[in-house]
Amino acid sequence: TTLFRSAGVDNVSVNITTKVIAHAVQRCVQLLPMGAMAIRMAAPSMVTPWADIVTGEKAQRLTDASAAKTVLTVCGGGTLCTPMAEGGVGFMSHASYVLDDDGCPAFPLPDSQASVNLRNAVSKDGTSPASFFVHGPASTTLLGHVESFDVTSLSEYTRKQALDRSGLSDEALMSAAWHRVVPERVYFADPVRGSESWVAASDYTEATANPLAGANSELIRRLAARPADLLRVGAAFADVSVDEVESCEVLGVDQLGFDLRTVTLDGARDGEVRRVGFKMPPQNLEDALSLFMKLFQEVYERQQGWLE
Fold first, then answer.
1. What is the DSSP code (8-state) at residue 57?
2. What distance in Å separates the CA atoms of residue 75 and residue 96, rounded to the nearest whole number?
3. Burial track 41-51 (b if 16+ CB lie within 10 A, e otherwise)
4. Which one, of 237, 91, 234, 94, lies nearest residue 166 by Cα?
5. For the whole prediction, is pTM greater than 0.70?
6. Is the Cβ–Cβ distance between 131 and 142 less than 8 Å?
7. Numbers of helices and strands, H then E, in the chain
8. Residue 140: which of 235, 64, 221 has the closest Cα?
9. What angle separates helix 285-303 from helix 227-238, to the nearest 10 degrees?
10. Of 203, 222, 212, 214, nearest to 283 (Cα)?
11. Which single residue of 106, 119, 263, 308 has CA 20 to 30 Å from 47?
């Protein structure tokens, strides 16, 4: 008011002006909390991205073709089913095998009922219809035909595998009659994911198996020895406190990520399986262990409030 009067403004104008300003200030005071709240709600919460992993839809999985080939890569024995001359049923026999460059199981086949069945069912092209079933954490069935196989085409590493799996001497191995199953259709079933699918034979042949498959048992054993870290990871991905997590386990690891089963107090009895992806695919046990150790440390820092 003093300022207005010193500037030569009359009393009536001063009174009107001061009332207008006072009303405006009062309205600002009333609206400020709501305005500030609106600003806070509109502002996105800043969350530090995970250093080495991705979650949700960004977490990729192996294709069914790669998963199907991985089953045969991990295992060394399968069930060969050959047709009986009487028809109607198939004859099943065990076969210890190695994989050729196309992922086809190759094995020595002694003179047995299975070899008799194959001879009786041989077609004009020299092949016989058969199926081959391999079961591990998941299962793969190859439906196709059996043909003769040249054992000398095996690499030195694969030949040593064949020696270990067959129990034969090197001389007996090289002189045995070898066969391989060539798939025309492939069926893959994964009980962990609850999925089943048909895979084209060409997709199976071109697929690459999980390079961590052979190290999975050792990797999971080492991770299971760190239950406190796993509980923290399970809590972070389930968005609950650690006290609400009953158990957490890694079911399997591949170059694209891992499957994590978490059981919480208020969750499903069998828990929930979540897929967590890797930003950079590990290629061996050491790479994978390094990623998990970094993940454990990052989860701990987040739960301590050191990362927002």
1. G
2. 9
3. eeeeeeeeebe
4. 94
5. yes
6. yes
7. 10, 12
8. 64
9. 60
10. 212
11. 263
Contact assessment for residue 107 and residue 173, using Cβ atoms and an 8 Å cutoff? no
* Residues 132 and 204: beta-carbon distance below 8 Å: no
Instruction: Please identify which residue in the block is written with the tokens 């439906």.
Output: 143
Length of the chain measured in residues: 308
Strands of the chain, DSSP E: 53-54, 77-83, 90-96, 98-99, 105-108, 128-135, 139-148, 178-190, 195-200, 245-254, 257-264, 272-278
Could you tell me which of 225, 243, 201, 246 has the C-alpha nearest to residue 296?
225
Q: Evaluate whether 82 touches 91 at the Cβ level (below 8 Å).
A: yes
- Return the residue matching tokens 């262990």: 289
Encoded tokens for 254: 């591949």
Structure tokens at 285: 């046990």
pLDDT tens, 114-164? 999 999 999 888 899 999 999 988 999 999 999 999 999 999 999 999 999
Dihedrals φ, ψ of 192, to 5°? -65, -45
Q: Which residues pair with 139 in a beta bridge?
A: 135, 189
pLDDT digits (tens, 9 = 90+) for 68-115: 999 999 999 999 999 988 776 789 999 999 999 899 999 998 878 999
Q: Which amino acid is at 182?
A: V
Torsion angle in degrees (nearest 10) through CA of 200, 202, 208, 213? 40
